[in-house]
Amino acid sequence: MNEIDIQKDYINKTRDLIKKGQKYCIYTMGCSLNENDSEKICGMIEQCGYTKTSDLNEANLVIFNTCCVRENAEEKLFGKLGELKELKRKNNIIIAIGGCMMQEKHIQDKLNKSYPYVDIIFGTHTLHKLPEDLYNAIQNKKIKDVIDIDGEIYEGLPIKRESLTKAYVTIMYGCNNFCSYCIVPYVRGRERSRNKDDILNEVKKLADEGYKEITLLGQNVNSYKCMEDYNFANLLNDIDKIDGIERIRFMSPHPKDFTDDVIDAIKNSNKISKTIHLPLQSGSSNILKKMNRKYTKEQYLELVKKIKNKIGNVLFTTDIIVGFPEETEKDFEDTLDVVKKVNFEQVFMFIYSRRKGTIADKMENQVEEKVKHERFNRLKELVEKQIADNNKKYVNTIQYVLVEGTSKNNPKMLTGRTESGKVIVFEGKTDNIGKMINVKVISEHMWYLKGEIIK
Ligand code: 5AD
Ligand code: SF4
Predict the structure, then answer these.
(1) Residue 323 Rama label (left phi>0; alpha psi -120 to 50; beta)
(2) Which ligand lies nearest the alpha carbon of 367?
(3) Which is the closest atom of ligand 2 to the Cα of 252?
(4) Which helix (H) or strand (E) holds 152?
(5) CB 179 less than 6 A from any atom of ligand 2
(6) 227, CA 20 to 30 Å: which among 194, 214, 346, 418?
(7) Is the pLDDT confidence value at 306 over 90?
């Protein structure tokens, strides 16, 4: 039997073992890759016979899919675990914790020492074994299923997707870049690309199920390579041909690997989004070198210029870290300068967080917390001003929108996203959900636009 069949067997055995009506609750931290992993976790757990709940008090199983990119996730996890101690005693729930944080030795030690009531610890390379781990845990076994060897890619796991209109498709796992601040290469292992046919078949299936938008995921999507002569541009070109999918996004590319063939693929497609996420991290060549990013401020700006020249109407979004060790005021001003020059559509801003085991953690001149926060606020102020100015340009334009559902704040309104990723709300019938429609923008607000459907 292959590994997936073994797990299917455990799914059946678990379903026979548990009482009817069992419920599970899941908490997902971190990036879209983790969200996609959680969809697979939910797929497996639901096939085991559990149904989802958001109410902890009625849960029989609580799952955490953790992230360790920044420190605040740790605080969140341990806080939540503390709260669960009483519930474990009262309802005898099963607690399972998986994901990136579980690959870290100091976290495993802390869980062993201070949270002995956790039942299952599973890592990033053993996610597919959750049915087996759960089956054993139900029989009062304490499970630690974490390995350090790069996991194989298992196809055909059950999946329960969050949305009925847009879907994540992970195309590669792991990262070889070792940016000096980043823990990901240590917890997710080396780059492994999925076979192109498995990806194309998944996208075709999504199109058949009525999905309109896909986001291709990977730590470094543009180093995707499944065969000597098949790279990320080839994959984009092939996905572009799949009928039914109307919008293709990808996250995250690395500027150093943004090749001309990828630029051409975007240019030649009317499905691939012309809003490109291009993580900057810092605008200072000096800091970029220390971050091991392998490009300079000038090279980043050149790349932006080249993409704009070749494709025309493109927008950029980015990730920026402030307060990296040894960052001076001058370095920070270089970051502000790039933000001004590129005029990003959206910036995901992070305060540098020391990660055990990374090169940057060992650097001597760590920036004072106060200075980090002060720089973060200055960056935020600039970014918010740019976003507010950019939002004004949307008013009276017609946006092609994927209608995702009703608005959480006002169920009488529909909500969707523009090609550039902006949330837009508008009145309309619910049978528009899942469709791509034209919406005229009538007003702009900091974090969303308001519009009306064009008849
Ligand atoms: N501290 C702060 N931000 C970080 N990121 C990665 N590692 C760290 C860290 N140690 C940010 C980067 C990355 C995003 C996903 O998280 O900007 O692009
Ligand atoms: Fe981390 Fe850099 Fe890899 Fe992204 S490319 S996951 S920031 S090491």
Answers:
(1) left
(2) 1
(3) 4
(4) none
(5) yes
(6) 214
(7) yes
Q: How far is the CA of 181 from the centre of ligand 1 (A)?
A: 7
User: How far apart are the CA of 248 and the centre of ligand 2, in A?
Assistant: 22
With 0-12 CB in 10 A as exposed, 13-18 as middle and 19+ as buried, what is 381? exposed
Homologous superfamily, domain 3-145: Methylthiotransferase, N-terminal domain (3.40.50.12160)
Q: Is the pLDDT of residue 222 over 90?
A: yes
Give the Cα separation of 2 and 11 in Å (integer).
14
In total, the chain counts a number of residues equal to: 455
- What is the overall mean pLDDT for the chain? 96
pLDDT at 283 over 90: yes
- Could you tell me the distance, in angstroms and rounded to a whole number, from the CA of residue 112 to the centre of ligand 1? 27
Report the pLDDT value the prediction gives residue 409, as an integer from 0 to 100: 86
Question: pLDDT tens across 155-202, in order?
Answer: 999 999 999 999 999 999 999 999 999 999 999 999 999 999 999 999
Q: How confident is the model at residue 150 (pLDDT cuts 50, 70, 90)?
A: confident
Please list, in sequence order, all residues whose beta carbon lies within 8 angstroms of the beta carbon of residue 446, skipping any fewer than 6 positions away.
384, 387, 388, 391
Kindly state which CATH superfamily the domain 398-453 is placed in. Nucleic acid-binding proteins (2.40.50.140)
Q: What is the pLDDT of residue 455?
A: 78
Centre of ligand 1 from the C-alpha of residue 209, in Å: 34
Ligand nearest to the CA of 376: 1
Closest by CA position to 185, among listed 217, 220, 222: 220
- Distance from C-alpha of 124 to C-alpha of 145, rounded to nearest angstrom: 10
In this predicted structure, what is the pLDDT of residue 327? Answer: 98
Task: Tell me the pLDDT tens digit for each residue of 51-66.
Answer: 999 999 999 999 999 9
CATH number for the domain formed by residue range(s) 166-392: 3.80.30.20
| Cis peptide bond prior to 273, omega within 30° of 0 | no
Nearest-atom number in ligand 1 for the CA of 183 is 7
Classify residue 368 by its DSSP letter: P
Smallest Cα–Cα separation from 98: which of 27, 182, 155?
27
Burial 199-224 (b: 16+ CB within 10 A, else e): bbebbeebbeeebbbbbbbbbbbbbb
Contacts of 141 (CB under 8 A, 6+ apart): none
Domain with CATH 3.80.30.20 in the chain: 166-392
| Ranges for all domains in the chain classified under CATH 3.40.50.12160 | 3-145
Quickly list DSSP for 39-68: HHHHHHHHHTT-EE-S-GGG-SEEEEEE--
Non-local CB neighbours of 116 within 8 Å, separated by 6+ positions = none
Q: From the CA of 323, how far away is ligand 1's center (Å)?
A: 11
Q: Residue of the nearest CA to atom 2 in ligand 2?
A: 179
